[in-house]
Write a structure and sequence with these properties.
The protein is α+β, with helices and mostly antiparallel strands and 323 residues long. It is 23% helix and 36% strand. It is built from seven helices and 14 strands. Strand 2 and strand 3 form a beta hairpin. Helix 1 runs antiparallel to helix 2 and helix 2 runs antiparallel to helix 3. The termini are far apart. The N terminus is likely disordered.
Length: 323
């Protein structure tokens, strides 16, 4: 946040700069780059007497962010260069869900999908508590994203088929996991591995069209891998067996710390439902919204997993239609 004296001369211009940046992004790559240059120059003059720390904060706010450019078509996204995306957070954003009411029949060569991009936008921790009457009450606690902009899954491909008149989507490869951490209002941080590894989702119909729902299970690997060592040097494939070495084992005092000492690579599960809201039959693009529930990190077996609820948007493409 800019310092007060900087805000007096610059904060009023930030909203207009962001709006112009969003418009420029839609106009094309050249206009987008020009808008960023103008934003830097304008704010540099406005805060010429400010401290370096405040200046950096203002510059960071002035550059076009994903939030300032909500509408981002696939064509516009693909036309941007590395330099135009660098530092804007757009690499963590999926292209907008296509608008269309077409339909795509899966048969023949149309049996694969690629460019699946899944962008979570809402995060919750589901907890079950007991009220005063002794009844179990499920509560959704809003989570604040603590991870930098690296939590979107993208470049995922897989297979499409039909079984009994229902569409089957099978995930195969791609950037299909992302280490993520959210924070609850009480300050607790909950890490989890956002993923769709091994997703097999069955549809409500055999045709890709608005209204189609695809639901299925996927695998949630351990947040930590085998070579990870905790602060006391304990791990699964390497490190110490326990925090205070052999004396603890000889004294038989390992019971209370068994889970802390006995590190393990846990593979848990998750569920997701993909809803198709738009289809462009001429290009093979389709997408919509999703809701997922999955397990959180267990700190290699020492903690009980929490249930994470995620909501957001997704897009995908069927190769062959536009070739």
């Amino acid at each position: 946040v800019p310092e007060p004296e900087v805000c007096l001369v610059s904060c009023g211009a930030l909203s207009s700069l962001s709006a112009r940046g969003a418009a420029a992004l839609q106009a094309g790559p050249s206009a987008f780059q020009a808008a960023r240059t103008v934003a830097k120059g304008s704010l540099s003059r406005a805060v010429s007497g400010a401290s370096q720390a405040a200046l950096a904060a203002v510059f960071a706010a002035a550059l076009v962010s994903p939030d300032a450019a909500q509408a981002l078509s696939k064509d516009t996204y693909n036309s941007l260069t590395y330099d135009q995306i660098k530092g804007t957070g757009l690499a963590n954003k999926c292209a907008d869900v296509v608008v269309g009411t077409g339909s795509i029949k899966i048969d023949g060569k149309l049996n694969k999908f690629d460019e699946l991009c899944i962008e979570p936008k809402e995060f919750f921790v589901i907890e079950t508590k007991t009220d005063k009457k002794g009844n179990a009450v499920t509560e959704q606690i809003v989570g604040k994203m603590m991870t930098r902009q690296t939590y979107t899954l993208t470049g995922i491909d897989g297979e499409l088929s039909t079984d009994g008149g229902k569409l089957i989507l099978k995930e195969k490869d791609g950037i299909d996991y992302a280490a993520t951490t959210i924070q609850t209002p009480g300050g607790e941080r909950v890490p989890f591995l956002f993923t769709v590894k091994g997703l097999v989702a069955k549809g409500t119909d055999s045709t890709i069209q608005p209204g189609l729902k695809l639901a299925g299970d996927y695998v949630v690997p351990s947040y930590r891998t085998g070579l990870f060592l905790d602060p006391k040097g304990r791990g699964t494939t390497t490190g110490y067996d326990m925090a205070v070495a052999l004396p603890a084992l000889q004294a038989g005092g390992d019971d209370a710390l068994f889970k802390e000492n006995n590190k393990k690579f846990e593979v848990l599960s998750g569920k997701t439902e993909l809803t198709v809201t738009g289809v462009d039959a001429s290009t093979g693009d389709f997408g919509g919204t999703f809701v997922s529930t999955q397990a959180s990190d267990t700190d290699m077996g020492s903690k009980e997993p929490k249930t994470i609820l995620l909501k957001g948007s997704w897009t995908a493409h069927i190769p062959g239609i536009d070739e």
